[in-house]
Amino acid sequence: MRRYFTILISLAAFLLQISAPIYAQRVERIWFSTDRSIYVAGERIWCSALCMDVATRTPSELSSIAYMELHSATRVAQTAKIALMDGRGAGYIDLPNTLPTGNYRLIAYTSANFNERGYDFDAAFSREISIFNVLSTARSGEVKVVEESDYLAAVAVAPSMKPCADIQINVAPEAGRLDQIPISIANNTAEEITFSLSIFNEDDILVGKITGPEEFLKMLPDADKVTFDRNRTPEYEGEIITAQSNEKTAYISAIGNYSDIYIAESADDGTVRFFTGNIYGDVELVGNIASIRQPFAEPQLKAPSPLLISQSLRDRLEFRGAAMQIGRRFDSDTLCELLPKRENTLLGAERITYLLDDYTRFPLMEEVIVEYISQIRARKKADGTRDIQVKIENVFRTGEFAEDASLMMVDGVPIFDHEMIYRYDPMLVESIDIYPYAYFIGSRQFDGIVNMKTYKGTIPSLTFGPEVRIIEFQGTAIPMAYTCRNLAENADYPDYRQTLYWHPLLTAGAAGTTDSSITVICNTPDYNGTFSIVVEGITSSGRPVFSKKAFKVH
Known about the structure:
This protein has seven helices and 36 strands. By secondary structure, it is mostly beta strands. The strands form nine sheets. Strands 1, 2, 3, 4, 5, 6, 7, 8 and 9 form a nine-stranded mixed beta sheet that branches. Residues 1-10 and 13-22 have low confidence and may be disordered.
């Protein structure tokens, strides 16, 4: 069964290419929400995304990755990639502490949008984000300093999003500091809803242009009137990485990500495309490639609206700046909850593992292989060098050694010259995993795979030829919810969090069902203030969802 499963995986790239003319004609648009609209440089923007099939107004199953760009008035300030599963995804953008004060525009799109004739990024959904740099006087775009009376007048008349859909938020109107309060969300509509939930500090700083799910739906084009002038292959399984290579057969692999290895054939001009299943996180890629083409569109956008500031903001911004610095210093991943992501199942869990510390440690790798690893052997080639072969398990569970060289890896990085394995120091290796099946990676078949995991997980002491490079790669953001459930474990510093709770991927069933309401626990901070609870989403039939309620902490 394992052999047949890997054969199916090997057909994925081929099926993607022949299905491209079918899938690429779908019209997609990305709706997204953020945990708030105001940040100081150095904070994190939490994001929730929904990829919609415009024709049906339901989540699109076409694209598995969305691209996000944060634009200043003149350039792209930051980018992110969001992995999508069944049209939904979550991620974040870390703001450099060098970003100038100003208003910014956040946009999102998929690779399928590039197929549309005259796709207009300015006409697509975007959000305006206000960023204040409390450590620098640098400014981006138009920043106006106004009198306090004018600022208060602007705050008083600032537009706000109106509630849409019958969503009930229940919370006590007041709470104490460092308290735990329940907050319930009840869906009173006749449809299931998918939404994000944010609870954040509302301190009367003027918010820029407001856009939500209702505006997003109004901006959708007529799918029947959209025409196409390109046939770019859809990123159905994950990001398609385009690179340049001087080798006929090219490969890339992510250090430490044992299933993230991809092999492809180069075109005549050296272009090579790797069909990935999405590589998560910022990683180092090892491969015989010269460069990787950036996937971001980086369009020229209209400048965001002017940012108004006044002297009265000083104390509030200094407090936010202190909160940012405390958060960067002390906040940990224990405040976050990992969300489900699509796993790369190339290798699977069925393997034979040797923990080398359980055996006599030998100074030579050849001794390790000969003395106690019966599932692999070495065979000399005509030129005197050795290939390593794995004993293969077939459907009848009887083993026979591979006829050709098996795939050898160190920390997930392929080593095609097996003499390098014999020269490698076994004292650096913690364990050896043997995968005794046939695997197809791109156009290559390997009878058996061996992965040597080092203690450091960073391919220590390995040197490669000049054709191999190590390239920094921006993968998709690891999907997380900032629930602060384990806040008590981090109680040795002031709790000045501006976002108290964020969950990007929540659902509630239709009214009358058992799952029509949810309850979350919110940890209040160690300061007084007014806090907003915001529910943003879309119903199963493509209708907007927005509801907001406030409570006080004192």
